[in-house]
Amino acid sequence: MQEHFRDRLRDISIGANASIRDVMEAIDRGGLGLAILIDHKSGLFHGLVTDGDVRRAILRGAPLESPAKLIPRPPARSARQDTPPAELIPLFSEKVRALPILDAKGRVCDLAVLDKRTRLPVSEPSLGMRELELLTDCVLSGWISSAGKYVDRFEKMFADFCGARFAVSTSNGTTALHLALLAAGVGAGDEVIVPSLTFIATANAVTYTGARPIFVDVDPRTWNIDPNLAEAAVTPRTKAIIPVHLYGQPADMDPINELGRRRNLTVIEDAAEAHGAEYHGRRVGSLGDIGVFSFYGNKIITTGEGGMVVTDREDIASKARALRDHGMDPNRRYWHTLLGFNYRMTNLQAAVGVAQMERINEIIAHKLDMASAYRRLLSGALGVTLPAEVEGLRNVYWLFTLLLCPTVFGNRDSIVFRLNPKGIETRPVFPPVHTQPIYSTGQHLPVAESISRTGISLPSSVGITGDDVSLICSSLLELARQAA
Fold it and tell me: Which fold has domain 2-114?
């Protein structure tokens, strides 16, 4: 699949005498994973440097201020401006993904790129040269396990972002949930109220503690836990409630927090999918007693794997820190006062997290632009129910998810199947947890079941373009016309 990138040449072209740092900045600007070296006087093509070439040079000890032209790299292939497209294809290979196109004088006038992305994924990480720079610094420092400067820095940045006093990093979002529950004193014989419409990790973390998840239905507008049904599910054994900010949409936290205060329940926000979402001007994660986030590779920001517990309560933060580190007494090395776990985040992961936090607002802005494009093209479409826009709430659209009316579109799963050959990856809404084999309760929760049956998540990556959104929407609506 060949595309031309003439408009990006200025961003990625740089003098051959430039430094490695300059090349990294050019690679980051262009977003193609490469920079073109040109003679600063004649403008003639001098060579091509990829992000992989830079990474290998740095790992071998090359200073960032050393000349980029000295970076070891294979000879660059190029093609003439008049080369027929059919003759360009054989010049590509697994190692050669880009070909500078030269004019008659040997100057770069275009770029042909073999695009590895033959499909539009539901979600993929947004990573750049800053992540590589901090990760490389971490590797060169030798601090690659759970000790190192980036762990503390990432925790501080994330706590400040959420508006919380404390943040405790973990190995993934599920371990963060587990630690939050344990730190809140949840254990055997307790009950924890959770919405059935969520990823199964929410319920699993409750079960890990020996407690029992109690499933309730969701609000038909926000798709999040219904506060009235949550209150009806409270028993003398109820210890906590976990509202989930599903797909980036904040749950209705005021009545949930009021319920928690009145019935002495710990409110633990599952914000794994909602970094930066807001409820009446406050960011999620700081609204209840404890907030929990995930940094899996498909989340709004990522550390590959990773999680975070955030809270204003020093007792919760201290207990979570001890539990994640084998229950070790923080004042006495190798002295264990609790049955703990190895749930620590590595310095490598945290380095990526710091770089991601430096541009989290930019990433969220891209998400909001993507959602606006979807809304503009699908608003009023027959059989399409868009995610609710609720006054005072900011949805950050981890995944842009909508409902498809079966009488217009037919079976949702057939839509998923038919979009796949078009290179459009989609994902069904989570099956309600109360219907899963390991939790099958025999309950009938009609709202969760209906949303799960008709819901579909569309490609929602930060890198998605307006043209991509147009293609996705036109393909989706065409399937509705075919079903009519």
Answer: CBS-domain (3.10.580)
